[in-house]
Amino acid sequence: MADGLGARLETPLFEQLTLIGVGLIGSSLARVASRKGLARRIVAYDNDPDVRAKVERLALADVVSPSPEKAVQGADLVILCAPVGAMGEIAKTIAPHLAPGTIVSDVGSVKEAIIEAVAPALPGHVHFVPAHPVAGTEYSGPAAGFATLFLNRWCILTPTPDIDPEIVARVESFWSAAGANVEIMKATHHDLVLAITSHVPHLIAYNIVGTAADLETVTQSEVIKFSAGGFRDFTRIAASDPTMWRDIFLNNKSAVIEMLGRFTEDLIALQRMIRHEDGDGLFKLFTRTRAIRRNIIEQGQETAAPDFGRGVAKDTDEER
Amino acid sequence: MADGLGARLETPLFEQLTLIGVGLIGSSLARVASRKGLARRIVAYDNDPDVRAKVERLALADVVSPSPEKAVQGADLVILCAPVGAMGEIAKTIAPHLAPGTIVSDVGSVKEAIIEAVAPALPGHVHFVPAHPVAGTEYSGPAAGFATLFLNRWCILTPTPDIDPEIVARVESFWSAAGANVEIMKATHHDLVLAITSHVPHLIAYNIVGTAADLETVTQSEVIKFSAGGFRDFTRIAASDPTMWRDIFLNNKSAVIEMLGRFTEDLIALQRMIRHEDGDGLFKLFTRTRAIRRNIIEQGQETAAPDFGRGVAKDTDEER
Ligand SMILES: NC(=O)c1ccc[n+]([C@@H]2O[C@H](COP(=O)([O-])OP(=O)(O)OC[C@H]3O[C@@H](n4cnc5c(N)ncnc54)[C@H](OP(=O)(O)O)[C@@H]3O)[C@@H](O)[C@H]2O)c1
Ligand SMILES: NC(=O)c1ccc[n+]([C@@H]2O[C@H](COP(=O)([O-])OP(=O)(O)OC[C@H]3O[C@@H](n4cnc5c(N)ncnc54)[C@H](OP(=O)(O)O)[C@@H]3O)[C@@H](O)[C@H]2O)c1
Asked: Which residues form the Prephenate/arogenate dehydrogenase domain (chains A, B) (predicted)?
């Protein structure tokens, strides 16, 4: 098929998929679930009435529910797609309304803190399989989602040891059918991996944009004009949703601080090389970092187009 | 015109443009000069015989010269497009062969160190107008260039006070005709502005890619797989040419160290907010950084397409 998602399933994997939170990630899940026929019925709830209205207007779900309690009734798969800090409360609210055997999952960007908040709130007769699709854009809300968001991206599952492997396999099939590659790991390891591949990069991006905004010797207008020298790359991820990212840093504190410590240590060594004009040391680092990008491109996680293909994207924009 | 560069000039601005160094920037200049008719004749020299052969094959210049001395003969505009560290030597080599009244310019990413290295080497009868087009990609070499590289980007001129304003105006016309917006400022100010908009961002990108490569708890393969969480954005600029960037850091030492000091100070404050779970402080920073990106997009220095329009670029790649 032209969108790369392949044919619609002949038999849905679930009877009713309920999504709690229908922003970028939740709405992308709704779209791909409907496009691929992953569930016979899609029910959605979001605590923002505007979002619920938009979801109706965009016809992203079969039913838009007025409450989380109602939304989960009849579901055999519930996926929590709200900010990390809201997951525990949502679990408490929906717990009494979950049918025995229901699979509860989530898409939160941190995993240990979510397990700690959600697992104890759920009844013993449901299965909790934490998940994190490593895919996104800098935009949020239901209009920003699209069905191919997860295509060729990785989704990490972090089930606790007590979960039946067959249940995990069902969640795995769901994500595979949505186009993702699935990897299973421990929640603590997930949090460490994501600290370096996502959380610290975001923190650094937010930080340099903040530093640039606070300068007295260089004006904001100069920063904007001359941003094509590299700075603008950082502003993309520093434009991500503030609530989402506040929650991530508050909930993955120790892994982020650990990775940040290493980053700062290395940066200070690099600063020392500059101060002492160690050209060879700089050249060595600048050479070895190229290999990683090559690998990321080869493994289909990045485009090889110069400048991320920005030119191409711009032309397309103008044609719209 | 379809490429956005507008009509070819009726009368060329210069008789002979000589380019010394024909990599990404030099070859893009050759392309736009020929596309727009900026000079009656384009002569090119590069100290790499392979590059010279490629420039011949791609027919980027009217003449590919076997030596810099020969290349500058007959030129009324000479632009040095070699790495920053090579500029001083090139100036010494060509100095005796420059005709009176010749304008010498460059495209180096730092300005004060280049003025110090180049100006004293040139004879009194030529005019030196240092320039820096703030445009580029992560690729290098003559095949990577394209005529629209400078279109809607800024080119900064940093003439010393002794230079005739009419001469500066001629260089300004050249860059305007190449599609760029021109700004004039002091070399020291340029170096400070670029330290924050380009040099420190590159340093940070190189650094985090290095930090990730050195981890023991997270494998390189995990870093690559899960790079779509943000990390891959940094690898683009960390794949830039090592020689070019070594030279930049060695030649803009004090401005880079100054800006890096501020960055690190801010980062440590941010780390402290995380440690003390100051959610409001984090939220505030993450909110105010969004405005800068909005401005960059509004001023035409960046695409508004989600994810830089990577998806669009990828499709194009696959069609090739
Ligand atoms: N964006 C990414 O790149 C990305 C990638 C992977 C995973 N994730 C994770 O995915 C989750 C959602 O992110 P997103 O990007 O989709 O965010 P989003 O676009 O901001 O959507 C989140 C939605 O959840 C709603 N919500 C908040 N609290 C709720 C509650 N108690 N009950 C029901 N709905 C609630 C929000 O409504 P309000 O308008 O009231 O806030 C909003 O509409 C987060 O946990 C995030 O960590 C994000
Ligand atoms: N790339 C960017 O994003 C960017 C943006 C703005 C400004 N600049 C500046 O533009 C200049 C060129 O950068 P670039 O990206 O075009 O680099 P590039 O693609 O690597 O090209 C530089 C070329 O100059 C040649 N060269 C080196 N020393 C020389 C010498 N003594 N005489 C003649 N040619 C020599 C190199 O040959 P070898 O193969 O022998 O090295 C190479 O072919 C640098 O000063 C850089 O700071 C770059």
From this structure: 15-304
Pairing relation of β-strands B131-134 and B154-157?
antiparallel
Domain of residue A277: give its range: 190-300
**The domain that contains A242 carries what CATH number?**
1.10.3660.10
Ligand 2 atom with the smallest distance to the CA of B133 is 6
Instruction: Tell me whether strands A77-80 and A14-20 are parallel, antiparallel or unpaired.
Output: parallel
CB B313 within 8 A of CB A305: yes
Residue A30 and residue A170 in one domain: yes
Residues 77-106, chain A: which have Cβ within 8 Å of B?
Answer: none
Asked whether residue A47 falls in the same domain as residue A178, the answer is yes
Cα B158 off chain centre by? 15
Tokens at A73, concatenated: 């009734």
A4 in reach of chain B (CB within 8 A):
no
Q: In this structure, is residue A129 part of a structural domain?
A: yes
In this structure, are B158 and B202 located in the same domain?
A: no
The runs of H, that is alpha helices, within B61-164 are 68-72, 87-94, 112-118
Residues A33 and A164 in one domain: yes
B192 phi/psi in degrees, rounded to 5? -75, -45
Residue A133 falls within a domain, yes or no?
yes
Q: Answer yes or no: is A205 within a domain.
A: yes
Give the residue from B165, B185, B205 where a domain finishes.
Answer: B185
**Count of CB atoms situated within 10 Å of the CB of A290:** 18
Pocket test for ligand 2, best of B24, B69, B111 (most atoms within 8 A of CB): B24
A40 and A122 part of one domain: yes
Each of the 320 residues of chain B gets a pLDDT tens digit; together they read 589 999 999 999 999 999 999 999 999 999 999 999 999 999 999 999 999 999 999 999 999 999 999 999 999 999 999 999 999 999 999 999 999 999 999 999 999 999 999 999 999 999 999 999 999 999 999 999 999 999 999 999 999 999 999 999 999 999 999 999 999 999 999 999 999 999 999 999 999 999 999 999 999 999 999 999 999 999 999 999 999 999 999 999 999 999 999 999 999 999 999 999 999 999 999 999 999 999 999 999 999 999 999 876 444 333 32
Cα–Cα distance between B277 and A83 in angstroms, integer?
17
Residue B224 contacts A, CB cutoff 8 Å: yes
**Same domain, yes or no, for A81 and A120?**
yes
Which residue spans within chain B are E strands per DSSP?
14-20, 39-45, 63-64, 77-80, 103-106, 127-129, 131-134, 154-157, 181-184
Q: Which residues in chain A show pLDDT less than 70?
A: 1, 312-320
Tell me the per-residue pLDDT of A219-256, one tens digit each, with 9 for 90 and over.
Answer: 999 999 999 999 999 999 999 999 999 999 999 999 99
Nearest-CB residue to B194 (from A202, A229, A299): A229
B201 touches chain A (CB under 8 A): yes
Statement to judge: residues B122 and B19 lie in one domain: yes
